[in-house]
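pasting for ref. prot 1 ->
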Amino acid sequence: MLPNQKSSMLGVALLLTTVTAAKPLESIFIPPTLAQATPTTFPLPTSVPSGTTVQIDGSSSMAAINQALEQRFESQFSGSNINLNYSGTPAGLQALRDGKVDLVAIGRPLSQEERDQGLVPVSMGRGKIALIVSPDNAFKGSITVPQFVQIVRGEITDWSQLGGSPGKIRFVDRPDLSDTRAAFRNYSVFIQTPYELGNTATRTEVDSTQAVAQQLGKDGISFAPANQVLNQPNLRIVPMHNTLPTDPRYPFSQPFYYVHRANPSPGVAAFLGYASSDSGQKAAQTTETDPASLGLNPAILLAAGSAGAASLNAGAGAGSSPSPTGTASPNATTATASPNAAAPDATTTAQEGSQAIGAAPNNPNGQNEGGIPGWLWWLLPLGIGALLLAWWLRRRSTPTAETPIAPPTSPTPTPATPPPPPPLMTPTETDGSLASRAGSVITSDR
């Protein structure tokens, strides 16, 4: 093979490597919101020093889980104290950055920017979002997802449009800081038709189910974390698609997390170890089906968030939650943030898809919870190029068998026929191979 042909062959190999890798890499760089969190593990404590105090602030949507874990942790570890406050997710996260609290309970994923600030989430599963009315409301029917969208946007204005008795509809919305409200924007129906309020809507000033209940009257409809309104005598849950929130097919839900800073104190680690243990995860899941069995206080659940601007409960701030010398004794068994944390919605997601209400692929909060690092995919074209180059060099170094030439009968011998060029993989073939792998990555992440 002539030198210029060798150079051309090498150039073609490298060019095809770049071209074939471009399309798959583009498809592999999925939005960070599709990635799944690597479970954070904490040892399950066998004992906690007396006087251990943990300050928790954040979203009122976590009130049921907070109350369930507070009662059980304090009961199991005598002398411990879990202080709860609900100033909202934005204020809670800022307090965590400032070292004023130990943990923040939130009802949405962290953004990448928040993660870059050293904040770490621990998943506590997902919870349903229930539609609610007053017991005095005459409507006793079921609502579909498209109808709910129309109610929000003020396109359905009368209960008779839903099969009820004639009468105006008021939609009672929550403030912008509400994690429960923000969860709707992650669903395809509110991407196709944005979450925009119509003329029939009013809004509460605080993110509190109690504040919502006070505004419902006989004509209002709103929403709340289901675990706050199950078995509440002063509220009635509206079925959606003829199901209730205790049914996995009930459409809407939101994620729950505890957020801590890197290197949490022993007291925080002990609480998270208990929260992520089988016992803690079971308690969190029970709030979704039978909160009454956990002995939760219904009045406290409703009032959570009503005093959002109130100062924190008495007690020192973050870092002093456990006594300085107190270290929770870890059990030999490590409690992992349960893999079932996202499971309650696995069935829902599939069924939501059949009703065209599946979670949207993009999350405005910019969640990035692990997954395959982007830099790893950049190595693919280099690896393919190296393989092609090695193949070419090996082909070049392999001697080509020459046909014996009879004694020359003419002044110029006939040159040997050069070997055919190597069968390079076409961009389409390579793209198909890598794209199939990219598809599996995206599918698994979803």
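and prot 2 ->
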Amino acid sequence: MPARDISRSSPSSTNARPDATADRHLRYRRAARFRREFLRQGLRIFESRRRRDQQSQRCETGSLLPQRRALGRCQSDRGASEKAQREDGDREGAGKVSGRGNRIEDEPAARHDPAAVFRRHQLAGRRSHDDPDGSVTQPAPRALIAGLGLIGGSIGIALRARGWRVAFVDPNVTLDAARRANAADEKVEVLGGADLVILSTPVDVAVQLLGTRHAARGTITSACSVMQPLRDAGGKNFIAGHPLAGSHERGLAAARGDLFRGCSWFVDREDAVVSRMIADCGARAEIVTAKEHDAAVALTSHLPQVLSTALAAYLEQHGIEERFVGSGLRTFLRLAGSDASVWMPVVKANSERIGPHADAVAKIAREILTGDATAFERAQRLWARLLSSAPR
């Protein structure tokens, strides 16, 4: 019996070529759908990223507002961004994949989904919008200054230039004036709610503030000309301080950000936030006891103020012809323009140390009048030392 020709009689042999053609068309249509889906996924990701970038920009702009309001807006914006991502994930039938940092990206569940490859490529090496340098961003420290005059205003200007948020308490200064001077961001009514409270008021007012219940919370320091009365009134959270800087001018209008640059800032003990504040003002911290400080400044600061004021008051009472006034008298009387509301509390608080020195100076003046020239020699030696040690 002759062999059967299978190649001619097999149905599969007859339909082989049409089936192969159909298979190619099917693969072509699948590939086209795959490409279209890939593009749609890419557009969704692009829109999602654009929305997140817009939200991040609004958060960054919000940092110019008070901290709590800016924080609330950023949290709200992040919530809207996450909601948009979840909606994208719902349309894609997706799970979630964590990127580096704190960002969450929606990821389609199917492993062969082309968007998965696209997303992984975009996520590789990416850092969070909230933490561009990969570290946890520290919030700006907040200072509250009581008394926004020459010293308080200068502290505010210097701290704001270093990124601090500054609030103030002062019934004599408006918020508009403080903002125009770049000395503060907001005005409040009571102490508290800050990383550091700085008392820059007259001494008697500072003592009263230390006796209020608000002074029992947080870290408090002073920027007054005496330390012992404040040390006696303050609690364990108080650091007595005094920046050795000033001017014959007064008020917020005279404040400037470089007033403390290179100056000594005395404190009676160490504290991290106080040290940071001093450094950000451009000064150097020096630790002294309150007793040692007040004894020293009685001679170097308080006595010169008393003598300048006393001479100016006497000349005004006696009467002078101004055409005979030269630069010597003007230089000696520079401190006479100081305000009594600032200096009388200082003199009263340190009078026991200032008084004996004033009596000794009067005695030397009488000795000069009787012909004792040794006072000039001692004076010249001191003046030469001061000139040689003065900052260049």
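The CA atoms of residues 221 and 239 lie 5 Å apart.
Confidence is low (pLDDT under 50) at residues 1-16, 57-76, 89-136.
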